[in-house]
Amino acid sequence: MSLTKLFTLVFLRKEDEILLGFKKRGFGMNKWNGFGGKVEPNETIVEAAVRELSEESTMSVKPSDLINIAHLEFTFHDEPVLMDVRVFATNTFEGTPKETEEMTPKWFNIKELPFSNMWPDDELWFPYMLEGKKFVGKFHYKGFDTILHHTIEEQESM
Ligand code: 6U4
Ligand code: NA
Ligand code: NA
To answer: Closest ligand 1 atom to the C-alpha of 74?
Structure first.
């Protein structure tokens, strides 16, 4: 795997709800997703997670309140790229979600998630996240709609 790119993905939680954003442009356009993006060379992973959440939803979190719950790796058939996605969750945050250039945020009940308009892998690993588990998921895609194979392994700690 020659090209590894590091990304963040943040989920804000209330009792029975999770904040998702409808991506208006770029990678994952027209899908509901968590908030995140590329880690820049001058910042830590957690700093990138806080920054992307703020840029995309206007919500603020303290770095120390972000819990690293998962590590996702995406590879693609015929493409020498590995997307290394660090997933964080927290129920401690400030603000009211507002629409930004990139995302339209919305609270969803965890029993009514829009899986048909999300990345296909989300339906496979969201149950682990919603049960409070920590896990490593690896997904091999052909194009952006077909998962050729995957593994999900629960972890004691991240
Ligand atoms: P720019 O170039 O600034 O628009 P940036 O915001 O840095 O991009 P972006 O939005 O392309 O990065 O990052 C992709 C986001 O999508 C990251 O939060 C990771 C997330 N993501 C990518 N593949 C995913 C997948 N298969 N399932 C999923 N989230 C995924 O749930
Ligand atoms: Na982004
Ligand atoms: Na970005």
So the answer is: 26
ipTM field: 0.95
Query: How far is 3 from 132, CA to CA, in rounded Å?
Result: 31
- Strand-pairing partners, residue 76, are 79, 141
Q: Which ligand has the nearest atom to the CA of 143?
A: 1
The torsion angles phi and psi of 83, rounded to 5 degrees, stand at -95, 115
Three-state DSSP class for residue 7 = strand
Reading the block at residue 68, the tokens are 């690293």
What's the whole-model pTM score? 0.96
Inter-residue contact 57 to 19 (CB < 8 Å): yes
Query: Over the stretch 70-118, which tens digit does the pLDDT of each residue have?
Result: 999 999 998 999 999 999 999 999 999 999 999 999 999 999 999 999 9
Question: Which residues approach ligand 1 with their CB closer than 6 A?
Answer: 7-9, 26-28, 33, 36-38, 74, 83, 85, 119, 121-122
Q: Is residue 119 a contact partner of residue 33, using CB atoms and an 8 Å limit?
A: yes
Q: Which amino acid is at 57?
A: S
